[in-house]
Amino acid sequence: MKKTMIGMLVAGALSGAALAQTTPIKIGFVGELSGPQAPLGQDQYDALMLLIEQNGGKLGGVTVQVIKEDSQLKPDVANQVVDKLLEKDKVQIITGVTFSNIMMAVHKKITDKGVFLIGSNAGPSPIAGAQCSPYFFSTSWQNDMQAEVVGKFASDKGYKNVMAMAPNYQAGKDFVAGFKRTYKGGTVIDEIFTPLNQQDFSAELAQVAAKKPDALYIFYPGGLGVNFVKQFQQAGLNKSITVMSASSIDGTTIPALREAALGMLTGSFWGPDFPNEANQKFVAAFEKKYNRIPSQYAAQSYDAAQLLDSAIRKVKGNLADKKAFHAALKAADIKSIRGNFKFNSNQFPMQDMFVFDVAKDSKGRVSLRTVAKPLVNHTDAYASQCQMKSL
Amino acid sequence: MTYQLALSQLLNGLQLGVLLFLLAAGLTLVFGIMSFVNLAHGSLYMLGAYFGAAAFAKTESFTLAILAASLGAGAVGLLLDRFALTKLYTRDHLDQVLATFGLILFFNELIRIIWGPGSIFMQVPDALSQTVDIAGFVYPSYRFAIIGVGLLVALGLYLLIQKTRIGMLIRAGATHPHMVSSLGVNIKWLNTLVFALGAALAGLAGVMSGPIVSVQPGMGEPVLILTLVVIIIGGLGSIRGAFFAALIVGVVDTLGRAFMPTLMRSIFERNTADAAGPALASMLIYLLMALVLALKPQGLFPASAGATR
Fold first, then answer.
1. Which residues, listed in sequence order, are joined to residue A370 by a DSSP beta bridge?
2. Range of the domain at A98
3. Do A213 and B107 meet the contact criterion of CB atoms below 8 Å apart?
């Protein structure tokens, strides 16, 4: 950590001597960097650092110093590290934040201080609605979006009987509700909620096999999704039942699933196979540096880095003018690697949502392949509850 | 409800049961014989899964993966016993709990450093990747294999404990350690042997679970809790108790999860049932444990009915 900081400072001093800005802009990164969910936070961090490194240690032409903190998926720890970033390090921007419960714990504290928070993953509904803040921007999605696109896809496909499965906690309920909001023309014949710590789904899979739905909608993030998909495939159900997932089969779990997940569907806003030039460059650079296919978490964070890059450049590194910096962020003058990208009134993205299937890519690796774009310029359902204050 | 569904749920329960037995056998022996509370037993299960997955990725032989997992976990158990835990055997249970909880954190972090924080891939061996179809009844062959392996191990343990000289010493050591020691048997090595055997069985359970559940740091903790329930219901120190309790817990847990929500729906209205069903199903084995503790505090099959302890 120290080494990279000194390296950046030296790089900044050598190449940026002409700039008026002598002290680097301090950016705090908060994410899950240990424990089972660490691959998500790691991808967010790696993509952020990728763009900074590509720009020679700078964003928007100004040297930046990134201070990395692990929130350990514990709201109390997140509170402590955010206090440290705000009071001791005096950062001007915080980015990252992996889980919704962490976001809920730190969102108000950061935005009340007038520090800009660029969320690159979690998008819980309260901060998209009633608790929205001008200091918060999301470069990912509002949580429900990833479920809504799958619901729309299931309606488009004409699936008549669908079953839904999710862990028995708030996000599980939200993801099933999001699916049902856009699923029309058929019935959800059963919903199964399993305890959050349950690892083996044999009993539930036997129920699914007996009910023979056209398709099964699942929300099992992280390791749970790995368990579920493997067991589903071993039970021989993948021949007869289509699996549609949200936030379960993604770039962080596919390496542990490989062929077991072939043919399964997932809803998201971005895939590594997007043909636009910015994306192709990003994917190639990420693979070269980190030797793995970037996940959507990396993509979200790369766009957050691009957003900061563009906004800092627009205000010429002068973050003291918060009004101007806010306007520069809101303009989102970037070539997003997802294609369409604009901020809605609640400063969450307005974007196209896609469905992918798991397939082999051109190099024979198991990855995600775009199959449909069910929702165009999609916005979340909570923006109308947001009364955005002006700065 | 069809008979196929009932049958496959019963088999699911049996499969969970034998897996729990592999874990419980070692834990209950260690507790029964050395009176040692080993919370790090789940870590040995995790190590087994990682050793097995690594060996499988290298050699593509599931037999070698099983060997690597059980021998590897057994070896770690041996080293743990000789170098880390010996001093703890004479301390009280609270010290043991604290120390072995520390070991859990240590092993989780070690695994994270070596294999990374994400889950690693382990596939079902090709020969067992299909389903078995018996007159219209379909069941994954790998889960059949788990049941088979578990029952074989149970038989082997029975023969070892009941029919061999070592087994006799283990049984004697469980009830009268000082007497066995004064008869010239090296009780320390006997303890080490038991500990390593338990560790090897945990490693075997780990590698057998590898293709089913996600192999990741911390995978041992949820299963450790179930295992503790099993040995409490079965009676501390009793292999026989562990076997029957594991099957009971496996079947009760599975049938509860499978049929409790449906049952609740036939009693209450949909919303109430959907909230209460899964909650009650996951409580079921703990209710069972409480019931057993109330009626038979020593467990269903106490190890040393005649011993004074």
1. A356
2. 2-141+274-351
3. no
Q: How crowded is the C-beta side of B260, counted as CA atoms within 13 Å?
A: 24
Instruction: Say how far residue A69 (Cα) sits from the centre of its chain.
Output: 18
Residue A13 lies in a domain: yes
Residue A6 has pLDDT above 70, yes or no: no
Give the pLDDT confidence score for residue B306 in this predicted structure.
40
- A14/B contact by beta carbon, under 8 A: no
Give yes or no for A185 touching B (CB within 8 A).
no
Same domain, A148 and A137: no
Lowest mean pLDDT segment, chosen from A344-353, A378-387, B53-62, B264-273: B264-273
Residue A68 Cα, gap to closest chain B Cα (Å): 17
Mean pLDDT of all residues in chain B?
A: 88
Set of chain A residues whose Cβ sits within 8 Å of the Cβ of B140: 234-236
Q: Within 13 A of B297's CA, how many CA atoms are on the CB side?
A: 0
- According to DSSP, the residues that pair with A266 across neighbouring strands are A245, A356
Q: Is residue B304 part of a domain?
A: no
pLDDT at residue A36 above 80? no
**Are A250 and A223 in the same domain?**
yes
Q: What share of chain B is helix, strand, coil (3-state, %, to 5)?
A: 75, 5, 20
Last residue of a domain, one of A268, A289, A316: A268
Judged against a pLDDT cut of 80, whether residue A317 lies above it is answered with yes
Q: Is the CB of B121 less than 8 angstroms away from the CB of A231?
A: no
**Looking at residue B84, what DSSP letter applies?**
I
- Contacts with B110 from chain A: Cβ below 8 Å: none
Q: Which of B153, B154, B161, B222 is nearest to B32 (CA)?
A: B161
For B83, the domain range is 9-295
Helix extents (H) in chain A: 2-15, 38-54, 75-83, 100-112, 125-128, 144-157, 170-182, 202-211, 223-234, 254-257, 277-290, 296-314, 322-331
Q: Clarify whether residues A331 and A207 are in a common domain.
A: no
Tokens 């967010």 locate to: A44
ipTM above 0.85? Answer: no
Dist. CA B80–CA B93, nearest whole Å? 17
| ∠ CA A299-A304-A310, rounded to 5° | 125
All residues of chain A having their beta carbon less than 8 Å from the beta carbon of residue B210 are none
Query: What pLDDT digit, counting tens, does each position of B58-81 carry?
Result: 998 999 999 999 999 999 999 999
- Number of Cβ within 10 Å of residue A388's Cβ equals 12
Q: What is the mean pLDDT of residues B195-207?
A: 95
Does pLDDT of A126 surpass 90? Answer: yes
Q: Is residue B2 one of the residues assigned to a domain?
A: no
Mean pLDDT value across chain A? 91
**pLDDT band (50, 70, 90) for residue B276:** confident
Residues in contact with B303: Cβ distance below 8 Å, sequence separation at least 6, in sequence order:
B28, B32, B174, B175, B235, B236, B237, B238, B241
**Radius of gyration, CA atoms only, chain B:** 20
Instruction: Find the radius of gyration of the CA atoms of chain A.
Output: 21
Q: How far apart are CA B302 and CA A146, in angstroms?
A: 53
Selected residue of B224, B257, B282, B285 to mutate for chain A interface (largest A Cβ count, 10 A)? B257
Supply the CATH number for residue B39's domain.
Answer: 1.10.3470
Helix H or strand E encompassing B171: helix B165-175
